[in-house]
Amino acid sequence: MSTTTSASPNSYRKLDVDNVAGGGGDDDDGGFDAGAADAAASLSPRELEQTANSRLGDVRGLITRGNVAAAIALAVEEPLPYGERPDLKAAKDLAISAVIEPLTATKTADIPNVVKQLHQQNPELLDRLMKFVYRGMAGSGVGPAGVVGPGNITGVTGQTAAALLNWHAAIVEVGGVGTIARVLTDRKIL
């Protein structure tokens, strides 16, 4: 009763996934701008540190003027120092400080409105911001030269932890749980 066919065991496939360009998802960018990440990879650690230091000064100026949404958008702008290389530590500390400072300076009641502004400006900003929220939760303190960030991984202060949790809740409310999934599955590590 069975019929013999000459079809291959994979004949049910409409697309030969083994031969698709991209080699099995290694080029998946996790929803982030791969071109900007490539630009960061082309910069030396010293150049990334200078960029992060300059950005931190600009962010502090925006915070002083009361423009927290612009400060956060600037802080999470590419190029960011991705990777586990030890020579990127100073650039990472500055970049993380540039994000944590406006987050902790924002009044709790203003957080949902700032998150909505960021989402309207560019939904990817929420994903990048969530990366920094998780990085801040992983370890925050006062590092070298008074920089707020993971320079001193001794634990998160109570005020910083509360602010980060408030930001996390607001980001998830606006961006949905997809924001968490995209951040956790992204291969670019801060």
TrEMBL record:
- Keywords assigned: Cytoplasm, Cytoskeleton
Q: Which domain of life is it from?
A: Eukaryota
Subcellular location field = Cytoplasm, Cytoskeleton
Question: Which one Pfam family would you cite for this protein?
Answer: P16-Arc
Q: What is its main location?
A: cytoplasm
Is this entry keyworded Cytoplasm?
A: yes
One GO BP: regulation of actin filament polymerization
Q: Where is the composition biased (Polar residues)?
A: 1-11
Q: Name one GO cellular component term.
A: Arp2/3 protein complex
Chain intervals for the UniProt region annotation (Disordered): 1-51
Instruction: Please explain the role this protein plays, according to its UniProt record.
Output: Functions as component of the Arp2/3 complex which is involved in regulation of actin polymerization and together with an activating nucleation-promoting factor (NPF) mediates the formation of branched actin networks. Arp2/3 complex plays a critical role in the control of cell morphogenesis via the modulation of cell polarity development.
Q: Which family does it belong to?
A: Belongs to the ARPC5 family.
What's the name of the protein? Actin-related protein 2/3 complex subunit 5
Its source organism is Gonapodya prolifera (strain JEL478) (Monoblepharis prolifera)
Q: Upper lineage ranks?
A: Eukaryota, Fungi, Fungi incertae sedis, Chytridiomycota, Chytridiomycota incertae sedis
